Fold each of these.
Amino acid sequence: MSYQTGQMGVAAGISLIYMITIPFVFLSTSAQTIEQGAGAAWLIPLVSGVAGIVMLVAMTYVLSKFPGDLYTVCRKLLGQVGAWIVALYYVGLFFCDSVLILRQFAENTLLTALPNIEFSVVVLLYIAVAAVVIYPGLEGVVRSNYIIMPFSISALILVVLLLIPSYNYYNLLPWQGTGLEKVIPVGLIFAGAGAGSFAIIILAPAFQSAQTMRQVAIWGLGLSTILKVVTVLGFSLTFGNEVAREKVLPFFEMARLVYLSRYIQHIEALFIILWVVAGVFALAINFYMGLYLITRLLNLPTMRPLIPIVGIFLAQIAMMPPDITTVLIWDGILISTYFNIGLYGIPTVIIAAASFKQKKGRGTKC
Amino acid sequence: MVGNNVLSDLVYFLKNMLLYQPPRLPRPFVLNETVDDKGQDYLPDAKQGLETAAQELDSQLKYASELRALMEKAQVAINNQDLSRVREVAKKLKILEEQEREVEPILLSYDHDLKPIERSVSARIDENARIIKELYNLPTNKDIVMRDFIIPGPMPVKAMLIFVDGLIDKQVINQSVLKPLMKWDDLAKEISGQELLTYIVDECLPSNQAKKATMFKEVAEGLNSGDSVLFIEGVPGAAVIETKGFEHRGPERPQIEQSVRGAQAAFAEALRVNTGLIRSMMQTNDLVTEIIPVGDRIPVKCAFMYLKSVANPKLVAEVKRRIDNISTDYINDLGVLEQFIEDHPTIPFPQMLSTERVDRVTSHLAEGRVAILLDGTPFVHLVPVSFFTFFHSAEDFSIKRPMGDFMRVVRLIGTILAVILPAAYLAIIYFHQEALPTELALAIAGARERVPFPAAFEVVLMELAFELIREAGLRIPGLLGSTIGIVGALILGQAAVQANLVSPITVIIIAITGLASFTIPDYRLSSAFRVLRFGFLLLGATLGLVGVAIALLLVSVLLSSMKSFGMPYMVPIGPKTKPGFDTVLRGPVFRQEMRPDALNTRNQRRQPHISRKWITEPPAGREEE
Amino acid sequence: MLRLAIVSLMILAAVFTAGCFGGQETDDIAYVLVMGLDKSKQEGKLDVTYQMAIPRALTGEGASGEPALSITLTAESTSEARDLFNSVVARTLNLSHTKVLIIGESLARQGLGEVLGVFMRFREFRGGMKIIIVNDDTAQNFISKNKPKMELVVSRYYETILLSADQSSYFPSVNLHDFYSRMKSGSAAPIAVLAGISGKDSEQASSIPKKPSDSVDDYLAGQIPRGEEETDKEKPNLAEFLGTAVFREDKLVGKLTNQETRMMAILRNNLQNPFFTIDDPLVAGKHIVLNLRLGRNTKLDADIHNDQAKLKGEIFLEGEISSIGSGVSYEREDYRKLLEEHISQTIKQDILTMLHKTQGMRADVVGFGYPARKNFRTYNEFMQIDWADLYSKADIDVTVKTRIRRTGLMWKTSPINGSDN
């Protein structure tokens, strides 16, 4: 079966989670967190990251008791219908994420890199590249992202460091931001943006053991959480709440502001490479995960014929919203509702069912 | 003659025009499709059956007439009461008996239906001669020498020595084949047939390799590789005597992979010279050389070598399986063979390391790779390889770490420049003018002010010019090559700028790109990147840095999903394996404790944790303390 | 393989049919290096001045003619002006290399909030652009009179002079991002560089009364007295950068002179190493010149109690003596202590004068509003207060400490020997 993913180690898993969660940095989300959290905005990604890690690690414990991937575990614990519902839910989640990423990165491109390009060309270009990228399978994508990862992380950190001369540390005051009682719930709700990291649970058989997955969950989500915290910190230190929350593209604005000398300035164009790569990888992996689940559900021998069809479908959906503001609002709504079901709801149900079953199992044994 | 005046010229001219007749020429030669082009090999010829039948009858007739002659002789001898004659006749009879077996009609018809190459050696020397003539298209083919002679002794026997001129050493034939045989007079025993052949091979010929052959296939193989073949009347077999002596180049200094340090021996064309070179540098019984002929019509010897105790047996089996399962006419170069056996023949990246350096081969063999050699190719290919191996050069480990690392980093930077510089230049000046410092943006704009072409055309023009220079420099004979490079680079560039065809900045960009592409140590990788560069250029010129990013991404995904003989191409970083301290930078030699993880060798460890044992011991002269 | 070929063909077709996606040849673009904005004589309109580079003049071979070209148009807005420029200039305008935004005083007094929106929103502008206010003049006039003689490209001139601002601290270097964040933050007042053309009205120079404590004259941009022949309009460059334009919200409300700007720089940690001229504490009428720098970062603090703000500043200066006009041995320890005390007092006085002046303008130029945030638990509480009001009524306490660490290349002063003393 050609949709089989091959073996993945810790490195590949970290790369997978990194790919799914990093678009946060390049999209408008950090501006939204600052709107919500003011001086304490950096706490929001931290709280979301911790919440994500906790849920993911809890799921790996379930998997160590009930081996298999998400679908088989659900079938064992929730029955056939339950498993189908869960799988279809995640198909929806990954396709939603693909559409949102596709649309936002296309808008991004139009806004910054290529202002004169036709919008539909950008959308088709990205989906076509994503399709070509996932065509040979998951291994190539994950591996090449792992190769690119050090460069993208260091470029990200570099921008934050180059901005040090424009930092105003008082921008973090008052330190509670909009109030801790508001910031922490917001953080928990924003965690939905990381629901895609459940990909490792879906691909569980590809990992060597539950132990590997636990490491992947902690290191992968930990890494992306740290990067998110660092960018949000850098962003709010540089711009302050009032200006920061006005921005559509925080990372682009940060790169634009770098002005160290006559020669080290105007560097935002060089970071186009960084966010295009991150965007296409994120799109590709969400695209792949959705297709993988469909293939798995219907027990198809290969996903390849589905790639162009679903790709065109996704591109069409991505072109539907009339303007970028609608997309941003929808993004917020989906993250706070739909995605959170995937992060909190379904795992809780599964964990509850697992513990119930285990207790029952122990009971009958005794 | 009439005086040559204008009038007469005019008259001749008109006459010629009116009465023109084309000269009578034979019909020009046209290489038409020949009628029997397709059929010969695979469809039985209608005439063939008749011919073989005629041959059958012919040989039976010959046998009969010989038998009759012998009977006449015997009658005469018996009549004369000549004992020695009788003995002679008896011996002849033995020979005839030997031959009789072949003349049996069933065997004969079976034999004659076979192709000459598949037949067994006959006991009759003239039959053998006929088959050899058929095999080698004699007398059209002038390379085959058939030397008839008689082995003297009490019972002189007819013999025939056959060899291919140009492949043999005449000295060897004269001194150690013909001389002992022709001056042989101590054949006391009366032996004949197979025994005679065994006796000759075992006791008579002072040649280093001699073996018996019974099939013409073996005979032909021997002849083709420079051996001589000895046929003896009455012996259904032949002796294949090693007399190789063809002209070949010996090992010389490396031409392509030059180095300051390290061994200075390069491979030559002859397979045996190459295997010998490797073995002479790796003197161990562990080193195995297997030889498989490849090519159906013209077999060429292909060897692969590995260390038995290190190399993964599955890898060795896979290499053998792939080479064994090639069905083609002729493979004349290792580069061709490579395309037959590599994992992704359509991807331009090399998936084997090709080297002409012996020391490089031995170091990779020691790591557990397999070396593939082909007769006639002065290169050795190594499998499996990772992408990063192509950035290593032979001497990286011979010099100390900082210099070795520095050179590797320079190469990597060169590679990146060679691939993306022109694309990034076009992307930036077309789409992202803000990325340049203001003065530079203005300087580029100022320089391009008088150029009448778009920047993309300029770059493509110069790229093309550069490729022309490179190709011309390569194809032009000898000394002129370097001149072309200088003339092309200096004069062409300067003139193009002065003629306002291109801007100076484009010349600089292309010159740097070209220079950078020469830092890639592997020629084939550099050609792959050269091709890729145009793809990058296209995407960069149409989509700006977004295009460059997409191109980079596609290339990296392509590289990461490739495999070289089952080993992922981007190992050890994608997938990540145990670090071997030899990827981009290299670690100290004494910390290279493990063989590359991805090769999954039989024996992972190559040195103990503390390989410099002396650091734990007291220094010399202080042992007693 | 076939599918791959089809996909790649489709991509290629898409690429080619859609043309070049807006890529522009270098000779289709005109780079605008400087942008000027003025209030137009027509009501509610703007005079927009673009100064563009002429790349041909920079190639070296035909380096004849002006390297820059400036054009002024009147339009409703800057964006409208850009379209109008398209009808005047053959090439497409590219604003991504615009280095400075020069604004005439009358427009600044009217308010910049409306004008600046486009600079934050349009992608070719960036926060790193410097913002310059022309003292008592129009931006158009400033741009046309400013003809740098040393720099080939005018953008280089602006960048160089503004990057060297901290050398003397006589003028700040403010970019659009700083200006805009201060405008929005409510914790500080926006400031900008003041620039002007020399000799426009030389009688104005005397209009600033010289305070008795001052040993050096105060100037605003355009008021530096120059040599006689230099007023000749042809020869030198008459542009000057001196002083600070102070805004409340988005309106220009006042100006700080060069000395006041320097005091502000001390509080804003922007003092690199300028020369201070101080009255000699012992010999009247003589001056001491010192090279002072910040020994430690200036600490600002603000406490709010019952709607009464208390602002604190702690300053520590280190210095080197450059010249002692009177010849008194200030290198000796007892005299040095005296001198240090005198310097501290003088600078403290100057700082307080400057701060009181800005309190009168209700403009917190230093940014005491940022440390004031620590008095609040949440951001919303902070946003409730009117910082400008609190600032104008605040108590200010500044402590200045000075240490003279070095005495230049001389370590003692011998008196001038002569019979007439």
Amino acid sequence: MSKQRVIVIGGGLAGLAATMKMAELGMSVLLISFQPVKRSHSVCAQGGINGAVNIKGEGDSPDIHFYDTVKGGDFLAHQPLCKDMCHHAPYIINLMDRLGVTFNRTAEGNLDFRRFGGTLYHRTAFAGATTGQQLLYALDEQVRHYEVQGLVEKMEWHEYLGAVLNNDGRCVGAVIHNLRSGEIRSEKGDAVILATGGPGMVYGRSTNSMVCTGTATTSAYLQGAKYGNGEFIQIHPSAIPGRDKLRLMSESARGEGGRVWVPRKAGDARTPKQIPEKERFYFLEERYPLFGNLVPRDVGAREIYDICVNDGLGVNGEMKVYLDLTHHTREFLDKRLGGILEIYEKFTGVDPREEPMEIFPAVHYSMGGIWTDYTRTEEGLIDHQSPQNQMTSITGLYAAGEADYQYHGGNRLGANSLLSCIYTGLMMSPGVVNYVNNVPEAAEDVPENVYTEASKNWQNKYSEIKKMSGNENPYALHRELAEQMISNVLIVRENSKLEATLDKIDEFEARWQNIKCVDTTDWSNPVPSFVNQLWNMIQLSKIIAKGALLRDEFRGSHYKPEFDLNQPGDFKPETYLEFEEQKTAGQLNESAFAPAHLDYMKRFSANNKKWLKTTIATYKAGTSGSAGGPEISYEEVDESLIAPRPRKYD
Amino acid sequence: MPDTVTFKIKRQDSESSKSYWETFVIPYIPNSNVISCLMDIQANPENSKGEQVTPVVWECNCLEEVCGSCTMVINGKVRQSCSALVDQLEKPITLEPMSKFPVVRDLAVDRSRMFAALKKVKAWVTADGYHDLGPGDRLPPNHQEVAYKLSECMTCGCCVEACPQYNLENNFVGAAAISQSRLFNMHPTAKNIADERLDTLMQEGGIADCGNAQNCVEACPKSIPLTESIAEMGRQVSGKLWRNIFKA
């Protein structure tokens, strides 16, 4: 065995899946995490993991899963990756079952599946309502086994600061900060994988965990890596309000029959149980008879916004609606949703088995992330041996899981994130190993000064941070940044507000210089790290806000009412396929279409031509004094397998 | 409604330094939990004497009682600080680090011993590989119900903090690890090395160290039936002892 190794940053599902798969292939792995990997944010995923196993005999198949995923993402996802992922999904679920995940069972003892948003099939395997936790534990156990065997070395309580780049700009290691001793040093690695999750903390309170600052991917961006689709931030329709965090109320609550409603009368002061059935407005069921409460998340969040803000029907006039499970028996609810109902009860003091829950939309997931590559086969699948798979635009630096950008397009379907995390980790591993086996120069042979200079650069930055003695508290400044983002870059986006937000972010950036490092001690001091993370969050908020400002359309989670194409209510998406077919054949018969439909289809087609593209943010360093920011450009999306068409869920 | 909330926090600057108490009086805000208050202290780290001090260091991540990170002793009881709601706590609120682990700083402790125990009891499934080997075994729903409950253990440390037998000096594996050995000994393939787990539990620091105080099951935030697990593993260990005797 050579001394070569791969550094994996982050111990959530993607990082652990890559670690165990590479270890299986004989590759040594150094696994770096803020905290014990068992505490990673993947534990927060609740409802389940998608895979067309077709246990219920509904005729489900990986191709239908693929179609639902691409349609759910409003056609912005890269189709070969989605197809390969969906085709591997049943195998991944079987693998996780073999590895000990305590999935719920049918009477016969098969894996049980439930429904989730954006599909009409029972496709979601689940372990109670803590599926992410259960999947993470199974991978954590595999990695622990490899740790005992010596193939994996874990460095928990360490933070990734940046990539070590050699003179050719190739990634040959990582600069690591020991969160206890404060030591900053470089670790050699022939490849580095960022499996560092999403950036929810940019919005302050979200459903994300505290470590989800996006700081690692932003650091890669600041080092020259491209960032893709930053403006596509998923707002989950159902969360529980909280001062410190907005706790998720899983989509599985609706998958198991939970009904969303508001009182028909604005400001109705009665308790929910006092309101008779006919005075309840089940607005999702009425507006979307086919998908009902299981419309995709972007649609659900927008409808809740609409009913509360535009119609003024929110519970007690606030941005809240009821999510009602009280028609089920306690036994049913405890077996299938126990974990999340306990959380609701613990944090609100109300028993959701007896009283409808009060929920509201919250920042949940980033479809965008660091740009990564792939190699497709002729059949439109992925060549798993290719070293390009999941590689960022910095050679040797990879990304996986929520940190990457290309699987979920403009909107992710529920229960596809656990799948994409495990899939990317497993799929990329053979290619990364091939890359490492063929590097022009092993990290061992890279001149030592490359590493010492990288360490020194970060040591200097941190000692500068520790000297900061202005009058801004970094945590208070973070709250202000978050407030801006929540107010202006959320469900409904307007250009004037986005412009103002970008100005505000520049102000925050200037105020960052005036921070007081409120703890300057050496031992186990989280403050300098937070100050650095805040800088990165400011940079990332620019990517999100600028991408949103420039994208003048309505796609998936990115909703600008001004650019809504207003699909006619009686329009059928198949009509558009016919229209496109006729156009391609050069035989467009305009009179065959209703005028309103024709007009809509022409606008839809023109809009796609302009905007069905990946947003790419590239960091441009500022000139004297200014910090610089993202330059935005657009890239083609591989949409060769399923023709883009208007989405419809009613 | 009170205007303020008082926190008495046991602080310690480093692993070897002496601990001290510091009081913080912060504005009362409805629907607070202990963590949102610690965040308020971060944003304005001023103690009750009006001195600017370093923000309190504590561990947390998910804030919804599923990662296990933010465990501490609150008003004398070990629990997660995210689910400790201020309105339900007696005031002033005292916060202390767990006492069964070395303190890192303030409320943060080093729980690596718990993860080491998971290695000792081989808490994993031995897989032939991660390629496609088809589905796992069919299992009845009641098997899943037992296993799922055990598998919710988040290695938070409540059970061992509450345990009179577990301390900084000995090497007892503790209730969490014993319960995990039960989980894997009931798994259709992980039970292939059940005996190895029992061997570990027979050694010093194993199941014989349990004094049957039953505090663990009371303290577990996930209501895992830890005493049942200990009893079950006790039976399995006795069975193996008898088998060993007859083999000899």
